[in-house]
């Protein structure tokens, strides 16, 4: 069973007056005492201290817990057969000395986490049983029974324990030096990971290079070892690993009973020996702190843990202006150690790139191979970088700009590291944030923000480590190098310095370039006559006789070059497939619009975050202006906007984050062919909004909005890394004090005239479904009951002349006539406009059993916008019809002008 550790206060505070809390604390303390047998005595059995069966102390005592402040586990290596255990036997009342000696060659790694002191009342049963035994008249029988009772209750009582974990390694002296080296470093890595000091990497590395580890958990991989340390330090489990203080159990008895025991056994009071008892560890042992036990001279593979962390290799790369950068948050972790290939070559290089793009690649060690599908001119989702970020390198224009730079480099290529997608695992937070951005209403824009601000765009899967000395010149004349000059040497070549210096002097004279000094990876100056010292640093790292300081290569080596580049989102195998499929078909990349006036015309300009790519975009809508009557008319461009017959209604409103349900969008004449498209403008760049249409009617749409926050963990804000990507957060801010955010919801309705697809602006044969851009108002969505009338949805069956006659017939179909008028009015028929006004003025439709007040409201909104009453709307419609010369409309509008009924003008 799992001990109750995490629920106890450390140290245990005095019980509060809250009865329920006090009762619970007492119950937990009792469970804790019984689990670790703090209330039981102990007996000696070889080199362990098993608990006795009887209870010698009550469980009503208060365990006092203290966390161990030691930063390092303790290593125990036994080296002698004499132990403190035999000395302990001398204080027993009975002659039970065990002369057995063991030759223990095991190693134990102790991880102490808590010390526990426990004092309580002596149990009545222990006192009574000893007291009863002392009353036996037969001395031999009395002695026998008393010895039996002490074995039952335990001859010793431990008052202070150490809790923690133990790893045992058998037959340590026969473990090979190489295996010991791996073990020491694996323990170091796992310890740092378990304490949360570093992130977990290489978790799938098998433990086949170290001796078997015996512990409470079965451990097959480095991840298992890291998890064991994490569970220990999180107090998920523990065991007694040493005994710090103990007393003979008879010292718990009253003085009178103790004296009778001394008289019976001929013993005298003894003090317990001072010293810590460690199970299965001999008295004479080697006790070493882990930090001193670990040797800092391991193989190259073992340095990778620290170097990977220091080099930010779990972060995506951003191609900033003039230099490489990394994302602020880790995107993945390494499951296995990359494949290492030793190189040990030195390259001497003099080059003058043809253009600025080649110069950027050379200066930053970027290697592009033939067949690499990635085009740096078109990096996915690299069209956005926040104002706070460094600007990105413009590879498109850089390719056409000549470079004046000349580079002289001395490159030490020591080792090549390579990995594939199976060697890494994306972090859950990275996966969640990418999917939230992709499923938002502005996926392209939000994915650009995710990669540009947080995670980076690219991932190189082959890395060369070593060192670089660089000298950069600017040529203000013609090109001085017709081709790149390159020499390569083995790092062990005894004449390497002589050869390098000879070439540098030659270049100095031949090309008039100053090679007297170089800049190293940390920005320091290395003079030409000190290059040999700089190279010796790399040679020492491969020399087994070198000192520990010289061999600390993780602080000397650096990243020399990177190749096998791929977009970072590709590590999300499932999501990347969907993303590729989606954005290979279309992009919606606008992020707002601007309104300005020119020549008394309102003009809208759509803003884009970057350049549009490869014609892979679509524009829908029309270009419009107002005519002299104030009506909007559209410009027709025969070679542009093949979807110009599509009408668009748009609007915007402000919503608050605390009220995102049942948002009403006021519309006109909606049908099931319409498509709703939405866009969000928010001050919170870390928030994405999911918008779901809920129900709709002829004149409105009801939507629900959901706010999705980009995940962050305060514990890992520094590097963005966490082991499993847990999405649990602790918010210490009082929610009542948080400011309610205002968010602008922009929306538009596409009236596609029944067309289910949009014609591609590039290829007439390519048709894209409208629901690629938004949501259809189809039958799967809830239809508001008060708005639903199946007859009103059907196409009118009467001609206009027939509809006009309906109100004069006894059984005339007034609703059908109304539908005809609406249908014809939408075709700009002036007679239909008159009859809509006539029905409004005389309230004709109320005679129909199917009449709904909304029929009038919709007609007024569509054909007589601004009218406040039916009569005002009728007069506006009469005027429109009268302007086309319809006599009856002229008569009725003239009478309205004369009488002032419905016309807001002076007579």
From TrEMBL:
Cross-referenced InterPro entries: TPR-like_helical_dom_sf
Comp. bias regions, Acidic residues: 720-731
Biased composition (Basic and acidic residues): 708-719
Sequence segments annotated as region (Disordered): 708-734
Tree of life domain: Eukaryota
Source lineage: Eukaryota, Fungi, Fungi incertae sedis, Mucoromycota, Glomeromycotina
Name of the protein in its database record: 5596_t:CDS:1
Organism name: Dentiscutata erythropus
């Amino acid at each position: 069973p799992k001990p109750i550790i995490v629920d106890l206060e450390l140290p245990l505070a005095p019980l509060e007056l809250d009865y329920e809390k006090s009762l619970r604390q007492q119950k937990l303390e009792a469970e804790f005492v019984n689990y670790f047998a703090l209330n039981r005595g102990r007996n000696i059995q070889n080199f362990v201290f098993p608990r006795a069966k009887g209870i010698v102390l009550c469980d009503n005592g208060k365990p006092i817990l203290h966390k161990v402040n030691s930063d390092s586990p303790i290593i125990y290596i036994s080296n002698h057969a004499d132990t403190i255990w035999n000395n302990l036997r001398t204080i027993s009342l009975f002659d039970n000395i065990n002369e057995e000696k063991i030759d223990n060659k095991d190693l134990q790694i102790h991880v102490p986490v808590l010390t526990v002191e426990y004092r309580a009342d002596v149990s009545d049963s222990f006192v009574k049983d000893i007291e009863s035994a002392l009353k036996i008249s037969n001395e031999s029988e009395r002695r026998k029974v008393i010895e039996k009772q002490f074995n039952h209750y335990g001859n010793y009582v431990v008052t202070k324990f150490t809790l923690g974990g133990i790893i045992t390694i058998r037959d340590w002296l026969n473990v090979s030096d190489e295996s010991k080296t791996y073990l020491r470093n694996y323990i170091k890595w796992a310890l740092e990971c378990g304490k949360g000091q570093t992130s977990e990497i290489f978790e799938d590395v098998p433990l086949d290079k170290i001796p078997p580890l015996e512990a409470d958990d079965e451990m097959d991989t480095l991840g298992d070892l890291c998890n064991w340390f994490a569970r220990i330090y999180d107090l998920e489990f523990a065991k007694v690993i040493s005994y710090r203080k103990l007393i003979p159990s008879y010292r718990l008895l009253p003085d009178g009973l103790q004296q009778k025991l001394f008289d019976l056994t001929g013993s005298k009071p003894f003090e317990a020996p001072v010293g810590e008892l460690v199970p299965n560890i001999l008295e004479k042992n080697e006790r070493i702190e882990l930090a001193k036990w670990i040797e800092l001279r391991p193989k190259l593979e073992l340095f990778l843990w620290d170097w990977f962390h220091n080099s930010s290799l779990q972060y995506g790369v951003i191609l900033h202006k003039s230099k490489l950068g990394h994302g602020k948050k880790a995107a993945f972790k390494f499951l296995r150690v990359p494949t290492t290939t030793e190189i040990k070559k030195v390259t001497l290089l003099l080059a003058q790139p043809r253009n600025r793009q080649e110069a950027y690649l050379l200066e930053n060690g970027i290697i592009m191979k033939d067949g690499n599908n990635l085009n740096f001119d078109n990096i996915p989702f690299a069209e956005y970088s926040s104002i706070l970020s460094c600007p990105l390198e413009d590879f498109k224009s850089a390719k056409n700009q000549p470079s004046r730079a000349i580079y002289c480099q001395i490159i030490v290529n020591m080792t090549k590291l390579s990995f594939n997608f199976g060697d890494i695992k994306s972090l859950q937070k990275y996966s969640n944030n990418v999917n939230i951005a992709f499923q938002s209403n502005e996926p392209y824009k939000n994915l650009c923000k995710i990669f540009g601000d947080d995670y980076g765009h690219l991932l190189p899967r082959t890395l060369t480590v070593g060192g670089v000395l660089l000298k950069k010149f600017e040529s203000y004349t013609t090109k001085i190098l017709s081709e790149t000059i390159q020499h390569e040497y083995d790092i062990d070549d005894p004449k390497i310095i002589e050869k390098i210096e000879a070439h540098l002097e030659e270049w100095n004279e031949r090309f008039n370039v100053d090679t007297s000094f170089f800049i190293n990876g940390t920005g320091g100056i290395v003079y030409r006559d000190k290059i040999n010292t700089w190279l010796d640093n790399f040679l020492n790292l491969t020399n087994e006789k070198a000192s520990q300081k010289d061999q600390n290569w993780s602080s000397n080596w650096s990243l020399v070059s990177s190749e096998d580049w791929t977009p970072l989102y590709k590590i999300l195998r499932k999501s990347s497939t969907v993303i590729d499929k989606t954005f290979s078909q279309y992009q919606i990349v606008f992020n707002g619009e601007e309104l300005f006036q020119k020549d008394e015309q309102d003009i809208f300009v759509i803003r884009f975050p970057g350049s549009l790519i490869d014609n892979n975009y679509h524009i829908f809508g029309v270009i419009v202006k107002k005519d002299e009557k104030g009506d909007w008319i559209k410009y027709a461009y025969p070679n542009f906007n093949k979807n110009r017959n599509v009408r668009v209604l748009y609007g915007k409103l402000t919503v608050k984050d605390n009220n995102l349900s049942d948002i009403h969008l006021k519309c006109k004449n909606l049908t099931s062919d319409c498509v709703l498209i939405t866009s969000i403008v928010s001050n919170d760049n870390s928030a994405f909004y999911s918008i779901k249409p809920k129900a709709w009617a002829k004149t409105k749409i009801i939507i629900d909005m959901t706010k999705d926050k980009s995940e962050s963990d305060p514990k890992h804000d520094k590097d963005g890394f966490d082991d499993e990507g847990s999405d649990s957060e602790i918010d210490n801010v009082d929610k009542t004090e948080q400011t309610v955010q205002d968010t602008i919801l922009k929306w538009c309705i596409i009236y596609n005239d029944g067309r289910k697809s949009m014609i591609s602006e590039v290829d007439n044969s390519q048709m894209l479904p409208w629901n690629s851009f938004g949501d259809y108002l189809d039958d799967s969505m809830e239809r508001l009951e008060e708005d639903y009338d199946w007859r009103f949805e059907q196409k009118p069956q009467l001609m206009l002349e027939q509809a006009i006659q309906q109100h004069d017939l006894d059984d005339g179909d007034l609703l059908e006539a109304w539908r005809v008028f609406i249908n014809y009015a939408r075709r700009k028929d002036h007679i239909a406009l008159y009859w809509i006004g006539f029905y409004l003025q005389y309230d004709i439709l109320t005679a129909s059993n199917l009449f709904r007040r909304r029929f009038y409201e919709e007609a007024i909104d569509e054909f007589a916008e601004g009218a406040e009453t039916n009569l005002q709307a009728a007069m506006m419609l009469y005027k429109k019809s009268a302007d086309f010369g319809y006599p009856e409309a002229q008569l009725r509008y003239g009478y309205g002008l004369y009488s002032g009924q419905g016309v807001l003008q002076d007579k």
